[in-house]
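Methods — Computational structure assignment.
A single polypeptide chain was analysed. Its primary sequence is given first, followed by the predicted tertiary structure written as structure tokens.
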Amino acid sequence: MFWAEFIFWLSAFLIFHTYVGYPLVLVVLSTFFAKQRTSGENDLPTVSMIVAAYNEESIIEEKLKNCQTLDYPPEKLEILIGSDGCTDRTNEIAHKYVNDKIRLDAFAQRRGKAAVLNDLARAACGEVLVFSDANSMYKSDAVRRLVGFFADTKVGGVCGRLVLLGHGGKVEADGERLYWDYENYLKYLEGRIRTVIGANGAIYAIRRELFRELPTQEIVTDDFVIALRVVQAGFDVAYEKDAVAWEYASPNVRAEFKRKMRIGAANYFGIRRVLSLLNPSNGFVAFGLWSHKIIRWVAPFLLIAIFAANLFLLNQTFYLFFFVAQTTLYGAALIAWIFDRLGKPIRWLVYPYYFVMANLALLIGFFKFVINSEKPAWARVAR
């Protein structure tokens, strides 16, 4: 069964590479080829923080109070809140904080996050645009930490670090927190070598002149497209681990599933906007994009291929063992799903549950991309 073995090992190699091999390569490269960055802590450009909001009445006041605690010269910082046709009390609450530095643009029609970001970016006065989510809270020095890298003329964007908090110790958040610790580490290593491959929507910044309007007729992930367009323009996106934002993790795995399903569809749309970067002539950028993103996004198909090929190889001991390992993984995820539905999550099963859930969400996201069923106006998922 040559073809079964070929498919099995090729798929297994790609899965291993995207989750384990790529991080190991980054560790080696960052050890021997770390890029030296110029940092100017006292060089403070004018900054516009941009926040798109849709029905954020439960968190918008906390966000605006958090903005008031930022350690940045008030005369150099403006906060732009874009309300995307909110139907709750978001506008009413935000309006109480409007002043000469905090502005609320309450758009009557709901058009989607991309359209709001486009409008706010056009209206921004700052030399640097800082993009934040309504539920992302910043450490007081986060903006200072972000903009310090812009003293380096080769840096066009900077990505900060997202820290996820659990909901009262709930075990459902463990998988998501582990995922973000892993992602933050990859971004840190990528930034040391050359550039981050996609930013983090909670906390990232770019030079205003590098902003290009996002497509509004399809769903896209702004942090992925905006960051890689900066790279397309010939600049690096640095990573600043000390520029910290925090959010609460999704309240349960089912909520995170919906979020990842939508992000999955958006990623497939978004890659079309930066296809040129996949060319091997782009060196590390192409390698990182293929390894960190593309292979990860096709991982659901690779997992299916491994399982299907394995069925034809059960007459050999190794493959029989591997088949048992796969069925154990998926069985554990199924048991975790059942207990999650019963409101009794099992901590030690959260990790296989999250892994299977994330890949299933990507798979469904792909088919949503194919039939174009995800619309630009997002449905809010609690986090």
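Note: Residues 2-32 form the longest helix (31 residues).
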